[in-house]
Design brief:
- The complex is a heterodimer of chains A (306) and B (248).
- In chain A, the strands form three sheets. Chain A has a six-stranded mixed sheet with strand order 6-7-8-3-9-10, with helices on both faces.
- Chain A is built from ten helices and 14 strands.
- With 306 residues, chain A is an alpha/beta fold.
- Chain B is globular.
- The two termini of chain B are 31 Å apart.
- The chains are: A alpha/beta (306), B mainly alpha (248).
- Chains A and B meet through helix 2, helix 3 and helix 5 of A and helix 1 and helix 4 of B.
């Protein structure tokens, strides 16, 4: 049985078609990434999947429940971390968790136990009685996630959960997501952080201009574009990229203090770099051969690179 | 099961509103201070019988208090970014609307009950029919809390815009509803206008329960207030649904 099944979803705002004919399914226990550039239709789709927005056409089934026919029952199965879903800053951390838990009908003893447990896991136990208005962005996001998982949802929807967070908060949140998934929850993650999707997701769906352009495992998507490889090299001093121009190098880019050379023939390119370095008396600090990345697949699929 | 989840959603939403919005400045200014200042402005230094005008004052207090919470909630939540979170919980738009109405109605009910108690003990205001008075306060609270929620439905992100808009709607009503001029003295156009104001029926019901005299039959007043409440809720539902995503 699928955790999420979506059929021909369509949503229009005025003359703009935000989402068109979106269909996919997510298996139980899967971490599913939903990727796309800004304005691609990610948030509109997640809002339709979580019952916040009603689709013009199409069907959403959550754990076997038709969302349109039985919205409340379907919502009870899910936890949602909305993109703009701030927590209540006029309530304390604990009050926010209690509020969320009470909406899901948790009994008081379980609510008490669960909120204590979550606040400790999230490193906020000492601040549990402080008003959220005094919290940093990362701390607020941790509370937001705690509110979404207080009832142990079968499916967790996260819309850009680590956007704009510090490294510690981001790592903590990613660990929580991984941990929840290990316990059996299905994770639906929208992000434009390719690295995050690559690290967490078993499958990714790429959406662009409201339409799905690819659904596959990250490695398979990378493989689609594996023909072009790149070599990243850094020297002990700055060099002009024109120096390496050659017939078998399709493109050269500067990446900080490194040069990235795109080629279909890595062997020839490496020998070419070494020979030039020898000739120009350049010391090679580092050199890495990279395959096509998921980011490259994403950029190509979404038309970011012509 | 379904009804219990719905009821729980309404109660939790109302509790959340009580915790967060009762002490917000616009609620205190428009819900508490304003009717009090209006009372002082009208009655202080004038030789008038307080007991004659008290039903009107009580209706005005209930009108302002009950309708002051509702207009604030949705714009405030949209501005703070909490509205989407609220919608993601197992609630429907009706749950949210009724939770907002309940919070507004309780505010009106509590403040008006306090004002009534003070009046009975310190101003020696007599109560002619206690049951009718209780029904009037409950019904009036629900009616004007529903009006408050309806006033919150236009799609604006700033609460101050809604507070201005709601004042624009609420203020004229107090001048055509028998608060300052008794209903029996309203003539011509003023009298006709008073019929379309829900506040008129509340003033009349307070007159019936406190002094035993009223322009309409109390049953008719009750019926009118129920009708207005249903109408406000129905229109609020439509507008809130239509403007759900605006300002998110």
């Amino acid at each position: 049985m699928f955790a999420i099944k979506v059929e021909n979803l369509r949503k229009r705002f005025g003359n703009v078609v935000a989402v068109s004919n979106v269909s996919f399914s997510v298996e139980k226990g899967e971490v599913f990434g939903f990727l796309g550039p800004n304005g691609a239709g990610k948030t509109t789709t997640i809002r339709m999947l979580t019952g916040i927005l009603t689709p013009d056409v199409g069907k959403v089934v959550i754990e076997g429940i038709n969302l349109r026919e039985n919205q409340i029952r379907a919502k009870m199965k899910m936890g949602v971390v909305p993109e703009t879903g701030n927590v209540y800053i006029d309530l304390t951390a604990k009050q926010n968790l209690y509020l969320a838990g009470r909406f899901y009908g948790l009994p008081k003893n379980i609510l008490e136990k669960k909120s204590e447990e979550l606040l400790s896991t999230l490193g906020l136990h000492e601040r549990r009685n402080d008003f959220v208005r005094t919290f940093s962005k990362g701390m607020k996001q941790r509370i937001s996630i705690a509110c979404a998982i207080i009832h142990n949802p079968q499916i967790l929807f996260l819309d850009e959960p680590t956007e704009g967070l510090d490294v510690q908060s981001r790592r903590l949140i990613l660990d929580i997501i991984t941990d929840l998934n290990k316990k059996g929850s299905t994770i639906f993650l929208t992000t434009h952080n390719i690295e995050e999707a690559n690290r967490l997701c078993e499958r990714v769906c790429i959406i662009n201009k409201g339409e799905i352009v690819a659904i596959d495992r990250p490695e398979k998507l990378r493989g689609t574009f594996d023909k072009t490889q790149s070599i990243e090299v850094s020297f002990d001093r700055s060099v002009n990229s024109d120096l390496f121009t050659s017939g078998f190098i399709s493109k050269i880019e500067m990446y900080g203090d490194k040069l990235r050379l795109y080629t279909n023939d890595p062997d020839k390119t490496v020998k070419h770099i070494v020979a030039l370095a020898e000739k120009k008396d350049l010391r090679i600090i580092s050199m890495t051969i990279c395959g096509a990345s998921l980011e490259e697949a994403f950029v190509r699929l979404t038309g970011g690179e012509k | 099961m379904k009804h219990s989840v719905f009821l729980r959603g309404v109660i939790v939403t109302a509790e959340k509103n009580i915790r967060i919005y009762y002490n917000k400045a616009p609620v205190i200014i428009f819900g508490l201070l304003f009717p009090l200042f209006m009372f002082f402005a009208f009655y202080m230094g004038r030789k008038i019988d307080v007991s004659v005008f008290f039903p009107g004052f009580l209706a005005m207090a209930l009108f302002f208090t009950a309708s002051s919470v509702g207009p604030l909630i949705t714009p405030w939540e949209k501005q703070a970014g909490t509205y989407e979170r609220l919608l993601s919980f197992p609630v429907s738009i009706n749950t949210i609307i009724l939770g907002d109405v309940l919070a507004g109605a309780l505010f009106g009910l509590i403040i008006t009950s306090i004002a009534m108690t003070v009046a009975v003990f310190f101003l020696e205001i007599a109560v002619n029919n206690l049951i009718l008075l209780a029904i009037t306060i409950i019904l009036g609270s629900l009616c004007f809390a529903s009006l408050g929620v309806l006033l919150a439905s236009p799609s604006v992100r700033s609460p101050s815009h809604i507070m201005m808009f709601s004042s624009l709607i609420r203020f004229p009503l107090i001048f055509i509803s028998g608060v300052f001029i008794p209903l029996t003295e309203l003539q011509g156009g003023g009298r006709i206008l008073s019929y379309i104001s829900p506040l008129t029926y509340l003033v009349d019901l307070f007159n019936a329960s406190l002094t035993g005299t009223s322009v309409f039959f109390p049953v008719l007043d009750i019926f009118a207030l129920i009708l207005f409440t249903c109408g406000f809720l129905f229109i609020a539902n439509r507008f809130h649904k239509r403007n759900l995503m605006k300002g998110l």
